[in-house]
TrEMBL record:
<dbReference type="GO" id="GO:0016013">
    <property type="term" value="C:syntrophin complex"/>
</dbReference>
<keyword id="KW-0009">Actin-binding</keyword>
<keyword id="KW-0963">Cytoplasm</keyword>
<dbReference type="GO" id="GO:0005856">
    <property type="term" value="C:cytoskeleton"/>
</dbReference>
<keyword id="KW-0206">Cytoskeleton</keyword>
<dbReference type="GO" id="GO:0005634">
    <property type="term" value="C:nucleus"/>
</dbReference>
<dbReference type="Pfam" id="PF00595">
    <property type="entry name" value="PDZ"/>
</dbReference>
<dbReference type="InterPro" id="IPR015482">
    <property type="entry name" value="Syntrophin"/>
</dbReference>
<dbReference type="InterPro" id="IPR036034">
    <property type="entry name" value="PDZ_sf"/>
</dbReference>
<dbReference type="Pfam" id="PF23012">
    <property type="entry name" value="Syntrophin_4th"/>
</dbReference>
<keyword id="KW-0539">Nucleus</keyword>
<dbReference type="InterPro" id="IPR001478">
    <property type="entry name" value="PDZ"/>
</dbReference>
<comment type="function">
    <text>Adapter protein that binds to and probably organizes the subcellular localization of a variety of proteins. May link various receptors to the actin cytoskeleton and the dystrophin glycoprotein complex. May participate in regulating the subcellular location of diacylglycerol kinase-zeta to ensure that diacylglycerol is rapidly inactivated following receptor activation.</text>
</comment>
<dbReference type="InterPro" id="IPR055108">
    <property type="entry name" value="Syntrophin_4th"/>
</dbReference>
<feature type="domain" description="PDZ">
    <location>
        <begin position="73"/>
        <end position="156"/>
    </location>
</feature>
<protein>
    <recommendedName>
        <fullName>Gamma-1-syntrophin</fullName>
    </recommendedName>
</protein>
<dbReference type="GO" id="GO:0005198">
    <property type="term" value="F:structural molecule activity"/>
</dbReference>
Length: 541
């Protein structure tokens, strides 16, 4: 009739704030960004304590008031040695214009400040070559004469497969391409000495008209991602498919970084941990501010993003981002972070913390390819599965649940549930000080009472009935008590919560961590200790 219960064990670990005490990280590096269906391109990533900045390269005018230009026109002449001093890659076969891939230091093209690595060649002597293939552009340049006027525009999102240098100070030894076939993915050196005796210097055209214009290639902001309440993920949205060495960050307003690709697993993990650290630090600071406006019994313990496993998932949507918050007596689930007091009243769902069960899933218990998962069994027995990105986040949620449950048990001190014993309506009180007390619902007469230490085992039928095995203090005999509840799982979870709180009070490590945790969670004039005037049910013998 009964199935063996898992036992009333509740693991406890130390201070929830230990993961918050890391200093905010700052990092900078050059990586690839895939934005939508575009080919990946080079970006610079900079992490500050409250914002992630994504930058792309662009060419701007830096003489006078800086401004951007879509096109620049440069007229150059072939040199006796080195020709144009340029190398090119790309072409229409890769759906981009031909791009300047190298500029020789020895050539005047570099010194002019008007041509840069990454410039796409749009016109040659007035001929529109935007849609020309690589070899076709090479032929046009070969036959262009001693003076060539190039109309160029810097391609900010040059595909990474072209492997263009990110700086201008690269060596370039142009080769004579007068014979053979050039390749769009290899540098085609433009050493085309149409007039060997020509030693004129490079000159620029009259555009733009303003004299003394100077151009520079710079990193400019492409996207700014505020980190407060931001979420990050290595997974393809809605799936359990983990991107290899790549991740994305989504701001609270929905602005997405795009997929940031790292060269190695270690580097990707470093960035994930650094960003997660900064998000956690901002969350901690925000929680402290919010808690100033909440009474003691409504303090926020922790909140943050998770991915919820869909119960009836379709193939392309297995997971949905959710924002969880442990506040006071409840676990709240939102589709977006609560900002106003009114937002807290509009949670998708809320659960009483001591009537739910948190569990970290072992590898053998994972439901799909996602790692770092936990489940919450609700008061109705439903299992809800959640996923986080890092193991440290998983441990943090575990500590947060434990701390929230303890605070609430300590506050309420006792909880009573209606039950049926031998077809009679009874009440079972779980009391932090006294243990278990069963009484008649009508007369309040106590049928029996046992301390927590007297409970030697329990089992349930998974529907409504619980059998408790208590040891009589005098006879040392085991006494079985069977009770029937309409809310079986709520009762089971509540018993777990009270047992965990009881055990935690005997743990010196917990006592010290509890005192440390209370400081940021409540105001300096408040305490979470249950006041002596807490009303308790009156029993009669």
């Amino acid at each position: 009739m009964y199935s063996r219960a898992s036992g009333l064990h509740y693991p406890f670990v130390g201070d929830i704030l230990s993961h918050f005490q890391k200093a905010s990280s700052t990092k900078t590096g050059i990586y690839l960004l895939q934005d939508g269906s575009e080919e990946p391109f080079n970006i610079r990533l900079h992490l500050a304590k409250d914002i992630l900045t994504i930058q792309e390269q662009d060419v701007i005018c830096v003489s006078g008031e800086p401004f951007y230009s879509s096109e620049r026109t440069v007229t150059i002449r072939r040199q006796t040695i080195g020709g144009f001093g340029l190398s090119i890659k790309g072409g229409a076969e890769h759906k981009i214009p031909v791009v300047i891939s190298k500029i020789s230091k020895e050539q005047k093209a570099e010194l002019s400040g008007l041509l840069f690595i990454g410039d796409g060649i749009l016109q040659i002597n007035g001929i529109n070559v935007r849609s020309y293939r690589h070899e076709e552009v090479v032929q046009v340049l070969r036959n262009a004469g001693e003076e060539v006027t190039l109309t160029v525009s810097f391609l900010k999102r040059t595909p990474a497969f072209l492997k263009l240098p990110l700086c201008e100070d690269c060596s370039c030894i142009p080769s004579d391409q007068s014979s053979g076939t050039s390749s769009p993915l290899c540098d085609s050196g433009l050493h085309l000495n149409y007039h060997p005796n020509n030693t004129d210097t490079l000159s620029c055209s009259s555009w733009p008209m303003s004299p003394g214009l100077r151009w520079e290639k710079r990193w400019v902001d492409l996207r700014l991602i505020p980190l407060l309440h931001a979420r990050l993920s290595q997974y393809v949205p809605g799936t359990d498919i983990c991107r290899q060495n790549a991740f994305q960050v989504v701001a609270v307003d929905g602005v997405c970084s795009g997929v940031i690709q790292c060269p190695s697993t270690d580097e990707c993990t470093d960035w994930l941990q650094a960003i997660a650290t900064n998000i956690s630090a901002l969350t901690k600071h925000n929680v402290k501010k919010i808690n100033r406006n909440f009474p003691v019994n409504q303090q926020i313990i922790y909140m943050g993003w998770v991915d919820e496993k869909e119960q009836d998932s379709v193939q392309d949507r297995m997971y949905t981002p959710k924002f969880l918050a442990l506040r006071g007596s409840s676990l709240f689930k939102f589709s977006a972070p609560p900002v106003t007091t009114w937002d807290w009243t509009r949670a998708e769902k809320s659960f009483t913390v001591y009537e739910i069960m948190f569990k970290i899933l072992k590898d053998s218990e994972l439901v799909d390819k996602r790692k770092h998962c936990f489940s919450v069994q609700t008061d109705s027995g439903e299992d809800i599965f959640f996923s986080v990105e890092l193991e440290c986040e998983l441990l943090l949620w575990e500590k947060a649940f434990q701390m929230a449950t303890f605070f609430e048990v300590e506050r309420i001190q006792c909880k009573t549930y209606a039950c049926i014993v031998d077809s009679h309506l009874m009440g079972l009180t779980i009391d932090f000080s006294m243990g278990f007390v069963c009484f008649d619902a009508a007369s309040k007469a106590v049928l029996w009472r046992y301390k927590f230490s007297q409970l030697k085992g329990s089992s349930d039928d998974g529907k409504s009935k619980i059998k408790f095995l208590f040891q009589n203090q005098d006879t040392k005999l085991i006494e079985a008590k069977e009770l029937e509840f309409s809310n079986l799982f709520a009762v089971l979870h509540c018993i777990h919560a009270f047992f965990a709180a009881k055990v935690a009070c005997l743990d010196p490590m917990f006592v010290s961590s509890r005192n440390a945790a209370m400081a940021p969670v409540v105001s300096t004039t408040s305490t979470l200790t249950a006041p002596p005037q807490i009303s308790k049910i009156k029993y009669t013998s």
